[in-house]
Records
---
Amino acid sequence: MTTPKPFAPAARHRLMRLRGLVRKEWLQIWRDPSSIAIAFLLPVVLLLLFGYGVSLDAKDVPLALVVDNPNPDTMTLCGHFERSKYLRPVYFVNMRHAQQAMLRRQVSAILRLRDDFSRENLQRRGTIQLIVNGTDANTARIVTGYVQGVYARWLADVQQRRRAFPPPPIQVQHRVWYNANLRSRNYLVPGLVAIIMTLIGALLTAMVMAREWERGTIEALMTTPVSMGEVLLGKVIPYFGLGLGGMALSVAMARWVFDVPFRGSMLALLAGSVLFLLVALGLGLLISTTARNQFVAGQVAIIVTFLPAFILSGFIFDIRSMPWPIRALTAIIPARHFVTILQNVFLAGDVWPLLLPSMGVLALMALVFLGLSYRKSPKRLD
């Protein structure tokens, strides 16, 4: 004769209650499609907006060319600039007209080839004058690099054609790893996925408990035998599924709409996404249980999650160039660690010495936020 296990009925009852809570939340989501719109429509809109609108590439930059003495050397150099896909040469007869065009923002830089350019080039003292509009420092640096690259290629062609000079003792061969085409979109879109999922994950749960308090349905939940842990779990599970769906949609758009390479494994991507979603949902749930008002909870979620993630995650601004107190602050921003995971999985592959520390930090943050949400949700109305 076997003795029935005393905890089996209790566990079965907890499972039934949890299943009922999850079903209730799914019905609530189905009747109020705003959550579905946040999970699936918002990623599409934001990825299209930021993916095509945010770019660090400078293409088709207008470059003023002033040639004091046209000759075969200057014409071949101008031809190199005309074949560049990054620069769009605009010819001017003198420097005064070119400077006026720069003042009117018609050109971003001025390249001047002086009268003695060919003679100095034969003597290996050839110089060119480049004037760059430094109002936008990033574009100015990029344009300067493009002009130097075109000029270096032209010099190499001239030396090979004339064989006038011996080859230099040291030849630099550039090799770019992970993003050979230097497309900023390959770097930015994975970061965008992290920023968008930060906003979505927090918004999905920031208003769920606040909605119960506003509508007064929290009192009905308090009178049932369900525990607050079951209530919180019943609310997290459906939104976790929505978050994974939105994440899958974002990754699919990054791969097939923006043509970002994917060199890692789905296992690493899934592990990082699950941990980050738990952090985002836990943070949103903590905001929801504290605010008890949907409007306030939504505003706090945007301020606390989206803005720090956008500025301090390394998505656009290099963390290593920040002052050390700000660098230390970025360590507690969950999006920073998820950006690291996504950029490595997409561009470099499964670099586990970089992925595991970020995943460990996200796991710790998930425990902290979910634990605080549970502590802040006692089963009482005060």
Note: The CA atoms of residues 50 and 192 lie 7 Å apart.
---
Amino acid sequence: MLFNSLDFLIFFPLAVLVYLLIPARFRQIWLLLCSWFFYACWNVRYILLLLASTVITYACARWMEKLEEQRRKRLPLILCILLNLAILFTFKYLDFFLSSVGGLFRTGNVPQFDLLLPVGISFYIFQALGYTIDCYRGDISAEHNFISYALFVSFFPQLVAGPIERSASLLPQIRNLSSLSRKELWDFERIRNGCILIAWGMFMKVVIADRVSVLVDQVYSHYGLYGTVGLMMAVLGFGLQIYCDFGGYSMMAVGAAGVMGIRLMENFRAPYFSTSVTDFWRRWHISLSTWFRDYLYIPLGGNRKGTAKKLLFLLITFTVSGLWHGANWTFVFWGLLHGFLLVIENLLRPLVRRMHAAWNVRTNTAGFRICRACLVTLIVDFAWIFFRADTISDAMTIISRIFTKMDLWVLSGGEIFTYGLDAAECRILMAALLILIIVDILRVRTGLMIDQWLAGQYAGFRIAFVLLIVMLTIVFGQYGPGFDSKQFIYFQF
């Protein structure tokens, strides 16, 4: 059930209405049933995997709670991690592992199981493992109420594509659902702000991401037919697509949860206004990058064991992060590439600061930040080539063609309007992109999300802006020939 589908348009209002009207003691049970139904709409059999991960992590946390010595708690923790990773490995990485081993040893007829990847499996398993590790560390107490814990793992707005919530943040809110008063539950401002986020996320997804994906898919599918201009349009287009697709989903998830009185973490913070690759990872998929920081990078040693090991830990963390995204060497290479970029940035940072001081560069000016943001965006978008391409060889060929197949003449001949989007569609995309840039500028300058910023504006302006976004989504999100309803990119992870 996609957020941008008619099914969800029917499901969500009904789920919320019943949630707001039923007695307080049934709220958790109702949301859990809604969450399981939401997940079962993809494949009812895979709800068993969700339940298995839920039961394993719940039981291991309760087991650890009964053990007094910290060293004895390692057994249930290790068992929990191994069982969950075994589920993840079997359904996501088994075929990749077998084909890689077969290729390494040049073995023919490698068996392939072709298991259907359960939607969102990496997200809910990492969220459940984070809870177990928190219990082991003593950061939180084990949850005794299985309904509350099951809802924590499977809460439907963020179940299949995050944000990957922390137990210390989400679990107390879930426990508190039954104690919310009617007045708190029917808070008009909270519901209004949640609806604004849903509307803005839908605009990002169906007006921008799904539109630019037509160009991206066409060029990447037949990259041998295109030169510098077409390939650069696809490279920059995919950077825009994945931001508006995943950022739009995250925005809708935060908004949908907010309508029900649950606050989820912000997952994107105007990432293409980052002034360094390090800054980019503070703004992009924040829930995952902080998860790897807290549960992998810091336990490895983080910044505590010297510069050389710190840089090694960065490489390890981002390589694992790349593998988390998919069972393909392209994702591993993409993660490793970002690790190297961070290593280079760390090594060059003292030199760059001395150069700025020697040349009296004013780094606090808007012009400097804009130039740095453009450079970082270009670097990140080139790295996305390995994320989007089918193979590393394809990615290298695309990069080679960008620099060797110059065809700037197509910019004046109108040929670019045959790359998937005609002139009218390109104008719609540019107008929508301008709105996105303005909203992200406001996010950077004010530190506020769009709903928070609008809440402080004149009511007439707020209503007009929301109506404009809804109108644009309805009018320009209804696609004709050549368009279809796109599944969210990160559902496959």
Note: The chain has two domains: 6-186, 190-492.
---
Amino acid sequence: MSAALPSFDDIRDAAARIAPHATLTPVMRSDALDAMVGAQLHFKCENLQRGGAFKFRGACNAVWSLTDEEAARGVVTHSSGNHGNALAIAAATRGIAAHVVVPEGAVRAKLDAIEQAGAILHRCAPTIAAREAKAAEIQHATGAVMVHPYADTRVMAGQGTAVLELMQQCEGLDALMTPIGGGGLSAGCSIAAHGIRPTLAIYGAEPEGAADAALSLVHGARIDPFTPHTICDGLRALIGESNLDALRTHHVDIITVSDEETITAMRQLWQALKLVVEVSSATVFAAVLKQREHFAGKRLGLVLTGGNVDLDALPW
């Protein structure tokens, strides 16, 4: 899936566009976690964003970028949870319809949140091909505007606003790290970060069982098809073509982590920060723990992407 990459100006425009609707999320610190890794960790708490995840930024920018004529037809997407929830909430801020295609087996708590936000749910088989096909079918039937979870210029621009905020809140960072799934967040944040400081080191954390981005960079071409096997439900999407280009252009260094390492990191984040952080978000801290010697003494910005957890199915 491919889309034009946003410019730094696109991301700044998105920040202004979503400002009336999005939450300016805090950056949190923990002396205990700093001591554990020997570095200064600055956690951008997007788990406290509207809808419980960074996804609201991109969805909101997409919805408010539409002309009145486009908006009247509504929006459609496919999502395992957070993007669908975000699009439903964003659509409600403009009073338009939202259709969300959800794969069988998605986290129940996330599906409940999408419905509560007012979206119309459409179910499909748990494959990327099935999701894309069902979304196209709905788009054809309703005329709704497709807002892809990550291969959408407007969405990437919106996601990049998280790092605009982070770098204003924390000056002098040595490095930035985000989780990597479809790549919308990592693409937008890389463009934003290097728009402010071109020499900033950028990292991505990816589950070993869904390491298609890391493999694609090694092989020099996008790995497709790819079947993920990871507890990190928010990071199972195949990396987008343009998103992969952004990783190459901005020299994003990917660190892969096991589900066991991620679950351990998730528990430590809950304990130290007193925050509900979902497992996909914990990959960034798991990556720092795994390579603590590499990050020793550095000031790191880590994006905690979401906090939408099924409390009846915690991984410990």
Note: The longest helix spans residues 153-169.
---
Amino acid sequence: MGGNQFYPLQDSDLLVSPTNFFFMRKAHAVGAALLATVVVLAIPLPTPRPDSFIPGSTAFVWNQDSLWNALEGSFSATRSGRCGNQDLLESSLYDLRARIDTLFSRDLGAEDRFYRRLENNMFEAGAYAAACPGFVQQYVGDFFRIREGLKLRSQAWNFDEQTTRETLYRLLYGGRTAVEEVMLQQPDELTALFFGGEQRSRTPSAVVQGVTVHSGDLLVSRGGAPTSALIARGNDFPGNFSHVALAYVDSTTGNVSVVEAHIEGGVAVASAEEYLRDKKLRIMVLRLRADLPQLVSDPMLPHRAASLALQRAESGHTPYDFEMNYQDPEKLFCSEVASSVYGDLGVSLWTGISTISSPGLQSWLASFGVRYFETQEPSDLEYDPQLAVVAEWRDPATLREDRIDNAVIDAMLEGAEAGDQLDFPWYQLPLARAMKAVSWFTNLFGVVGFIPEGMSAAAALKNRAFSARQSLIAREVGVSAVRFEGDNGYAPPYWKLFEMAQDVVASNP
């Protein structure tokens, strides 16, 4: 019947030997144990509930949609007229400079209505300058003078008062935003590197990418990761920066070392080249004012602070502080690297401590391991009157990316306040916990593992899921922004990007 044979089943084939039976039972037992282990590893631990009450703290809200629309209307009308009549622009700039002169000549408290008039004038002039080529540098120079004057005036203000924080924020963050709107409408005039006022220092120095960096300078930057955008925006006064590092300059060799804390491996030391190689959307160099009493008596104090930070970093491993407890020296997040050593030498950075009072945001940050919601946020360092802005770098491409990321995070945080939760596929948890166990073992030998030291497996998965969603929304907003620019002939202002992000978030629950 061909090559196939049919063998009838014999009764003996149904019999199992004692040895086979033993191995079958053992295999079943092992399989059951593995299944039970997977089930147990898939059970998520409850996220600690944050304490949402912070006395005297409220999240800042602009709530000025009508003003933004009016500014866009002024910009569009001026642009359509090809700036043929520059009287409005010149008059607005004249008024702005007159008010800036007043800022330097009169000692006004933070609550004075003068600052709201200065703010409105600054926004109005920005709308006209954005529409008229040739005015970018002038407008940037006006903002630098406003910043310098505010730093001078705020030295006498009470930073425990909400009015002080709001006045500084409205003019410094608002002014920064206005300047960048002007830059993006005239990208050909955008100089990537801007220098602030001259701030003398007697500490060792070196030139890095055209900037003279002194030992003890603070490098404030914005990373390119979605979580960097969350750090920048995730506090009561949303900002543009997510990371702080401290520069050390060797007095003999002139080599620059950067001391910083990374989520992945804790406190580390990098060369200037390594620091710059890590993706950054903007960098700002801050320096202690030379007339501070502490520096008058000890001009080398910033170098001593940087030396202390370098010594601590090189003396042993310091893990990253996910809890953001700036008073715990055993673990450090990026801001603490600077504040801890300067604090030891008598300089208290962050004149105003950052707060995170929104319950939805607190819940999200608690998912990543944050436990302290009165802390030191990188963006708020810009408002410290003890510090002067030495230089700042950004370019059109990274500026666009930064603004889209910020708009997406702001829209996502609206969802957080409405009850959206950070989640991840439950079936990934067993593998993540196994990877966490491997990471714990490699950490014993000083090797960075799959999951950062101090971060739980669930937090790592939530981080990954959050980053994936933010990136997806940002790509869609980027497409909408290109379409808007094609239809209207100009880049969408920030409030338009935010509306686009709201639409995408609503359609991608």
Note: Residues 197-393 form a domain with the endopeptidase fold (from Nostoc punctiforme) fold (CATH 3.90.1720.10).
